[in-house]
């Protein structure tokens, strides 16, 4: 006999019972194991895997310890369940913390990378509240625009937030309910003018606010909006009224260079600095896309309509946009392409870390530009021409006068003695236009030491070369894939520069966008010198100094530099002194790479300080003190280096590769043997 759990006597257990009970238990365990495996598979298929090494709790926690507005839940809602089993997370970062973040995935099924913008998910009632409040705010904002002197974004945001707060209080959406109140549902129902369905399936009568709240609100908050709901509503309303609506998060992504939507029912695409072209999860509805493009044009001060369906515009943040409305000139309908404006320019160190140029090439460009040699950067679309021109402009000494000419402001220089000129389209047909010719004519009277022209597109190139041939050092960009194409297009119609005049140019850098190890990269394919005009053969003599070799992804010096020889002649330097000048600049650049000094303000300060006092900077490098002294070096009277620390912190600057780090270390080792001792001892030139 045996007793049960409460001490009662039970029946005598028969020997035959034991194997039967064991078999049942085994079957139950097996069934439970299968159910557990099925549940695990279900969970894995319906949730995204977290990237190894990512502390997700920390990612979704604010500095004050509270949760971010956008959370893991919003990420799960943003990605379709059918996609989740096939996605591998590559990168995750905030673009508008705590409201919006980006995740870059690789799809194992489709073997492509995808860009997901994740924003707070709204319930049905929250979406309808947002629509109602947006309608009310639209009137308020229009009134504020009409009555104010202008709209600069900051004022607009303040108006939106103040009016939103007023609206929420006016309709008792954030107050404690009084006795007998119907709670939030009743308040919202009356506020939205909802009525019972009369059975005919028709819409609400015109004249009401026309939005019917859903009863889903009862499941979460039957009384008032909680703080999180208010935060989500405030985010979307300021995003739409102050920012760039659906693409606002993408616009804030410093790693994105271009944003485009190719037509109705098309997703938005981005060009990402690290991942190349990516499809996004952002889509516009047909009417919404039309309205968005019209809004972009209006914000840019341009008009777009069916009569004038295409415009080139400059957005308030400086980005360049090409806008097309409707199907008149585009089969797939309304589309846009936005070329992002970089708040903080890239530097020569960024170009070296990207391996767009080598340290040797960058040192040569430095010495050449510092000594008034003209540079033309050529390449195809998205090859990084303007980025290189902007970075190379740091090599212009602060003691010189600079004038820049652009149709859209993209160049940024640290020099105080800088006139930044921008073309202006006519306000009416045929009148008041200020084009490149007008600005070039004015430049002659401004007497610059260096002239920067954003891009040569047509006949203004002839005037530019006339200025170059009269002694004005010029730096510009041009759309061409080779030096031969540059020569052909400049010396034939419509630009039609004479071949003798073309030799006023010193250097041509040909850039290309290519693929290395599956990554989209930019490389300087050749660095070429324009030597002389051969009258007998009627041709311009050119010579490559550096070439990029695709098979090794390395730069090789292939010829002597006549530009360096001219500099040595003009400065009265021996060959040894020339090599030392080149090496000293290479050492400064290598120090910045090796020590991770890549911020715009720090690089600009180091470069300008060297050109003002080389022995002092080399002494700081030799003693390992340059990095700590950079804040003091920014205080040159002729230089204005004012960069917002928060903006700099979000700049998408590259890390040097192991090969670049080794190259920088080798340069510093050579300097240790041949250069540093004399500067540690306090010697100078």
Describe it.
- The protein has 685 residues and is of the alpha/beta class.
- The protein has 5 domains: 1-46; 56-118, no CATH class; 126-243, no CATH class; 247-339, Beta-Lactamase, CATH 3.30.450.380; 348-680, Rossmann fold.
- The protein is built from 24 helices and 18 strands.
- A 9-stranded mixed β-sheet has the order 1-2-3-6-5-4-9-8-7.
- A hairpin with a 4-residue loop joins strand 2 (100-107) and strand 3.
- The longest helix is centred in the first third of the chain and has 30 residues, at 17-46.
- The chain is globular and about 95 Å long.
- Residues 1-8, 146-151 and 191-222 have low confidence and may be disordered.
Question: Strands across the major sheet, in which order?
Answer: 1-2-3-6-5-4-9-8-7
Q: Give a quick account of the main beta sheet: strands, pairing sense, barrel closure.
A: 9 strands, mixed
Q: What is the level-2 CATH architecture name of the largest domain?
A: 3-Layer(aba) Sandwich
Gross morphology: globular
> What is the CATH topology descriptor of the largest domain?
Rossmann fold
CATH class division of the largest domain: Alpha Beta
* Rounded mean pLDDT score: 85
SS element count, helices: 24
Oligomer: single chain
Structural class: alpha/beta
Number of domains: 5
Q: End-to-end distance, in Å?
A: 108 Å
Rg, Cα atoms, Å: 32 Å
Percentage of β-strand residues? 15-25%
Q: How many β-strand stretches?
A: 18
Low-confidence stretches: 1-8, 146-151, 191-222
Helix share of residues?
Answer: 25-40%
CATH H-level superfamily of the largest domain: P-loop containing nucleotide triphosphate hydrolases
């Amino acid at each position: 006999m045996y007793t049960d759990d409460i001490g009662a006597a039970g029946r005598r257990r028969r020997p035959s019972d034991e194997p039967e009970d064991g078999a049942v238990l085994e079957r139950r365990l097996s069934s439970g194991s299968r159910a557990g495996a099925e549940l695990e598979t279900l969970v894995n298929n319906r949730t995204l895997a977290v990237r190894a090494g990512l502390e997700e709790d920390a990612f979704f926690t604010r500095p004050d310890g509270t949760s971010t507005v956008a959370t893991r839940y919003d990420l799960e809602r943003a990605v379709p369940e059918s996609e989740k089993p096939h996605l591998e997370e590559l990168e995750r970062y905030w673009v508008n913390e705590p409201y919006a973040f980006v995740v870059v995935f690789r799809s194992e099924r489709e073997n492509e990378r995808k860009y997901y913008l994740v924003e707070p998910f709204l319930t049905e009632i929250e979406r309808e509240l947002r629509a109602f409040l947006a309608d009310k705010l639209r009137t308020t904002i229009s009134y504020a625009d009409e009555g104010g002197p202008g709209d600069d974004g900051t004022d607009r945001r303040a108006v939106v937030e103040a009016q939103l707060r007023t609206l929420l209080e006016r309709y008792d959406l954030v107050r404690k309910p009084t006795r007998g109140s119907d709670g939030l549902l009743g308040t919202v129902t009356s506020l939205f003018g909802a009525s019972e369905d009369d059975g005919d399936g028709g819409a609400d009568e015109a004249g009401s606010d026309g939005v019917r709240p859903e009863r889903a609100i009862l499941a979460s908050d039957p009384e008032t909006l909680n703080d999180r709901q208010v935060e989500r509503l405030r985010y979307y309303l300021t995003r739409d009224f102050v920012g760039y609506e659906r693409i606002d998060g993408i616009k804030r992504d410093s790693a994105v260079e271009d944003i485009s939507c190719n037509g109705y029912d098309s997703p938005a695409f981005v060009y990402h600095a690290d991942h190349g072209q990516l499809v996004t999860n952002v889509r516009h509805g047909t009417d919404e896309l039309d309205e968005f493009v019209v809004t972009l044009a209006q914000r840019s001060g341009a008009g777009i309509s069916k009569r004038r369906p295409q415009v080139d515009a400059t957005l308030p943040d400086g980005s360049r946009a090409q806008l097309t409305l409707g199907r008149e000139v585009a089969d797939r309908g309304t589309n846009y392409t936005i070329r992002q404006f970089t708040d903080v320019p890239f530097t020569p160190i960024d170009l070296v870390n990207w391996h767009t140029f080598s340290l040797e090439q960058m040192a040569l460009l430095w010495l050449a530009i510092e000594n008034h040699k003209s540079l033309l950067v050529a390449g195809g679309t998205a090859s990084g021409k303007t980025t290189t021109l902007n970075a190379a402009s740091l090599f212009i000494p602060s003691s010189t006068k600079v004038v820049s000419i652009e149709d859209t402001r993209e160049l940024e220089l640290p020099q105080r003695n800088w006139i930044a000129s921008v073309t202006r389209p006519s306000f009416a047909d045929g009148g008041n236009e200020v084009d490149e010719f007008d600005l070039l004519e004015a430049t002659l009277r401004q007497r610059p030491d260096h002239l920067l022209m954003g891009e040569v597109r047509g006949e203004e190139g002839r005037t530019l070369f006339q200025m170059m041939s009269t002694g004005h050092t010029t730096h510009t960009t041009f759309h061409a894939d080779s030096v031969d194409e540059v020569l052909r297009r400049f010396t034939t119609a419509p630009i039609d520069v004479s071949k003798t005049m073309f030799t006023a140019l010193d250097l041509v850098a040909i850039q290309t966008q290519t693929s290395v190890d599956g990554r989209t990269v930019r490389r300087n394919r050749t660095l070429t010198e324009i030597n002389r005009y051969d009258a007998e053969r009627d041709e311009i003599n050119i010579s490559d100094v550096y070439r990029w070799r695709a098979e090794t992804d390395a730069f090789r010096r292939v010829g002597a530099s006549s530009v360096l020889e001219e500099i040595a002649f003009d400065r009265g330097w021996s060959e040894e002194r020339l090599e030392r000048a080149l090496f000293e600049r290479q050492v400064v650049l290598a120090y910045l790479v090796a020590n991770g000094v890549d911020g715009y303000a720090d690089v600009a300060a180091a470069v300008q300080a060297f050109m003002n006092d080389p022995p002092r900077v080399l002494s700081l490098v030799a003693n390992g003190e340059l990095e700590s002294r950079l804040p003091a070096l920014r205080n040159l009277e002729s230089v204005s280096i004012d960069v917002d620390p928060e903006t700099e912190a979000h700049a998408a600057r590259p890390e040097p590769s192991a090969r670049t780090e080794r190259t920088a270390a080798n340069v510093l080792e050579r300097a240790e043997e041949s250069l540093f001792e004399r500067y540690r001892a306090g010697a100078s030139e």
